[in-house]
Amino acid sequence: MGSLDGKVAIVTGGGTGIGKGIARAFAEEGCNLVIAARDLDRLESAAEELRQAGTGRVVVTQLDVTDEQQVIDLFALTMREFDRLDILVNNSGAFDGGPIDELTMEQWNRVIGVNVTGPFMCTREAFKIMKPAGGGRIINIGSIAAQRPRDQSAPYSTSKNAVWGLTTATALEGRPHGIAVSCLHPGNVAVERRSDGRSATGVDEGPEPLITPADMGRTALLMATLPPDANMLEAIVLPVAQTYLGRG
């Protein structure tokens, strides 16, 4: 018996990296999954791995998280396939940066659209399902950049600050309805940092220690399997050796 047997989870950005790591941790505990992202080929490949890892069903669907109708359709698909939704993981993310006086509106709007507007729309649709059902869990993937920004990262760091704001606002609103909303802040994860230490901004900061998507999956699983009356509102998971504390 798995701790998520019979449960249903949506994981955006579920075909690669942190999203796939979380989806695998859920699959291993018997969860039924809907994984959504732009790259259908990667989703299909991930789905095969997840089906081998667990006993639940895995449904894939292509998704641009900034497209309102596609987000609405994602939740309608989930209800058609499973008639319930227990967990939403807002993981889809975009990375961009550079000197602030050289940033374009296209760069800014793309990052804010994927990292903030997308999770807002997904959360809105999840609330429509979870409120009548009497509860559920939403896990937003933030970043330590919300608290310790790197140089030349204005779009990304701003977006992750907004994710934390969305988390606290919706946790408050969901409380009377049994909806627990959490934020998981990754440090350097292998899929998000190049091995040569080059950040998403293009600034080479040297090699840095990395954790794995599986580390994020274990933490998200803990968040998802707490008793209904408990919520891990916020968690930071990063390499022990990462320069985070004391770098200010």
Structure in a nutshell:
The protein is of the alpha/beta class and 248 residues long. It contains six helices and seven strands, in the order βαβαβαβαβαβαβ.
Name its key features.
248 residues; alpha/beta; Rossmann fold; seven-stranded parallel β-sheet; 6 helices
Would you kindly provide a written description of the structure presented here, covering whatever features stand out?
By secondary structure, this protein is an alpha/beta fold. It has one domain (8-237): 3-Layer(aba) Sandwich (Rossmann fold), CATH 3.40.50. It contains 6 helices and 7 strands. A 7-stranded parallel beta sheet has the order 3-2-1-4-5-6-7, with helices on both faces. β1, α1 (17-27) and β2 form a beta-alpha-beta unit. α4 (105-133) runs parallel beside α5. The longest helix is centred in the middle third of the chain and has 29 residues, at 105-133. Residues 192-196 have low confidence and may be disordered.
Query: What is the β-strand count?
Result: 7
What does the oligomeric state look like here? single chain
Largest sheet: 7 strands, parallel
Count of the separate structural domains: 1
Strand content: 15-25%
Examine the coordinates and then state which fold CATH places here, giving the name of the CATH topology. Answer: Rossmann fold
- Name the helix and strand elements from N-terminus to C-terminus, one letter apiece: EHEHEHEHEHEHE
Helical segment count = 6
Mean pLDDT: 93
Level-2 CATH architecture: 3-Layer(aba) Sandwich
Kindly report the spatial arrangement of strands forming the biggest sheet: 3-2-1-4-5-6-7
Helix content: 40-55%
* Broad shape: globular
Span of the ends, CA to CA = 46 Å
Q: What is the CATH superfamily?
A: NAD(P)-binding Rossmann-like Domain
- Runs in which pLDDT lies below 50 for 5 or more consecutive residues are 192-196
CATH class: Alpha Beta
Going by helix content, strand content and strand pairing, the class is alpha/beta
- As a whole number of angstroms, the C-alpha radius of gyration is 17 Å
